[in-house]
Amino acid sequence: MLNKANTLKEEIIRLRREIHQHPELGFQEFRTAALVAETLAEIGLGEIKTEVGRTGVVAEIGRGDGPVIGIRADMDALPIQEDVDVPFVSQNDGVMHACGHDTHTAMLLGAAHLLKQSFAENGDQWRGKIRLLFQPSEEAFDENGISGATAMIDDGALEGVDNIIALHIISNIPAGLCVFNDGYSMAAVDSFEAWVRGSGGHGAYPHEGTDPLFMTSSILPNLYAIPSRYVNPLNPSIVSLGRVSGGMADNVIPNEVHFKGTIRSFDEETRHKLWAEIERAFKLAETLGGSYKLRIDQGYPASYNEPAVNSWMRQVAADLAGQDKVIDQPFGMGAEDFAYMQQAAPGAMFLLGGQVSGGGNHHTPTFDIDESVLPLGSAVLAETARRYVMGELG
After folding, report:
1. Please, is 350 exposed, middle or buried when counting C-beta atoms within 10 Å of its C-beta (0-12, 13-18, 19+)?
2. Mean pLDDT, residues 317-344 taken together
3. What's the rounded mean pLDDT across residues 51-80?
4. Please, what are the domains in the chain?
């Protein structure tokens, strides 16, 4: 399968660069979705559905009433101005594929090529179907708290899917390494916004009012102490502030301080504990003579890699790339809305190293990846799905 994928290398790279040049934000992936649908039609896949989850695309290949495996790739870009000197730099001002979703889409299109070839060769032996899921808006919710995964699920894209797989390119892992982790692998992510309020006043007469900046000086250490002092240290968690702002002049005590932050956890008990402790930290404002308002916005759940599904891809990666290219290590506290799909069908995601000299990290203007690994990604996805429908997996 890897040999076949390498014959498609230039085509996969061409597709990646075409998508990279024309990035689109979440639920605006009209051009990308059209390219995906056209490519799938050219490959010869039938049952191509568009506008699934608004701008998603779904296609299926296989036969019979056997088990169904889904393969997911996300298509959306980020609101970042690209700063990479390549011929295929983003043509859309202020929008960039800074997380590798262009490579995910291209690799799944490569896998579609490979699976069509496989079906033509021995489709009569297939015992199920493979569903290709090109998902919009992984990076953000809409105004109603809907992400691309939930939108596709609501549109029935995962109905009948028994298992699901995916990959994510990683810019800070050596090119060609395949990284696996069983169980909880990416964190649940929530955000919070708060306002601490006092009366404010003249900087020369602080005793005549209440000072939200003074209240903040007590609230901040309590917020930062939550993971280390109020949560079981065996349960990973993070409370990080991204914004604390208040005041405009040196001699004016403001009447409000504004906070924004992020919350990360792996299990629901810890998640709710963090929410409660954040509330308690801000309640200090009342003790100090002020008031507060807190809003917590629940985000993606934690991603759980089903060990059995993970083992299928791990074995395929070892068979195709070599055992020395397969490692097991924690993924970290990033988040992925693929977690919603994993709740709908047992599944797993692996990380594909794509480090390139001089390339920046994810979500930065200098993000870049080594395109030579794209055929490997296509091959692992396609071979895992082929073995699945052939009944060759343990």
Report:
1. buried
2. 97
3. 97
4. 2-186+302-390 (3.40.630.10), 188-298 (3.30.70.360)
- DSSP output for 84-137: ---TT---STT-B--SSHHHHHHHHHHHHHHHHHHHHHHGGG--SEEEEEEE--
- Whether the CB-CB separation of 135 and 153 falls below 8 Å is answered with no
Q: What is the pLDDT of residues 119-169, one digit of tens each?
A: 999 999 999 999 999 999 999 999 999 999 999 999 999 999 999 999 999
Q: How many CB atoms lie within 10 A of CB 218?
A: 13
In order, the DSSP letters of 289-350 are T-EEEEEEEE-PPPEEE-HHHHHHHHHHHHHHH-GGGEEE----S---THHHHHHHS-EEEE
DSSP 231: S
Burial 164-188 (b: 16+ CB within 10 A, else e): bbbbbbbbebebbbbbbbbebbbbb
pLDDT at 64: 85
Q: How many CA atoms within 13 Å lie on the side-chain side of 50? A: 13
Residue 49, amino acid: K
Q: State the DSSP string of 135-159.
A: E--SS---TTS--HHHHHHHTTTTT
Indicate whether 49 pLDDT > 80: yes
